[in-house]
Amino acid sequence: MTKGFAATSLKDIADELGITKAALYYHFPAKADLARGVFQPFIDDVDAVLDELDGRRLAPEDVLAAYAGALLPHRTALAATLRDPGAVADLDLEGASVRWLARLSALVGHGEATAETRVRTAVAVGGLTRALVLPEMADERALAIAVEAAGAALGRGTTAER
């Protein structure tokens, strides 16, 4: 699908998959349903991981590693959202991102999501999320490096504490 989600028809998708358009329509009556089927699982997985972490007092790097671990199996879908934001127009990915950032800020700040924690978490999570779609992420060492770099973006303590 090189022409983007909006310009790609269900027939194009069916042809690419080698199935009939009717078979595709049976499972996905509209393109929005197909998009939800592809992208909703990674939203659900991140929400589930954050639910598991809620209330726990973990090292920030452990929180970031859990977040990365939830997204890693969905690298292809994640990359598609970065390449073609129109593909997720029917999903509230922006709302999910805002929700995740608030929850991650609270987790890495151990319940105190100060302005500095929120900014540092946004930088850390943004960089980590973007790194997850790099080809290098097939190597476990690269993932550890990405989590370490994201942890470094969080810094140690607030500016006032330094």
From TrEMBL:
<keyword id="KW-0238">DNA-binding</keyword>
<dbReference type="InterPro" id="IPR023772">
    <property type="entry name" value="DNA-bd_HTH_TetR-type_CS"/>
</dbReference>
<feature type="DNA-binding region" description="H-T-H motif">
    <location>
        <begin position="9"/>
        <end position="28"/>
    </location>
</feature>
<feature type="domain" description="HTH tetR-type">
    <location>
        <begin position="1"/>
        <end position="46"/>
    </location>
</feature>
<dbReference type="InterPro" id="IPR009057">
    <property type="entry name" value="Homeodomain-like_sf"/>
</dbReference>
<dbReference type="InterPro" id="IPR050109">
    <property type="entry name" value="HTH-type_TetR-like_transc_reg"/>
</dbReference>
<keyword id="KW-0804">Transcription</keyword>
<keyword id="KW-0805">Transcription regulation</keyword>
<protein>
    <submittedName>
        <fullName>TetR/AcrR family transcriptional regulator</fullName>
    </submittedName>
</protein>
<dbReference type="InterPro" id="IPR001647">
    <property type="entry name" value="HTH_TetR"/>
</dbReference>
<dbReference type="Pfam" id="PF00440">
    <property type="entry name" value="TetR_N"/>
</dbReference>
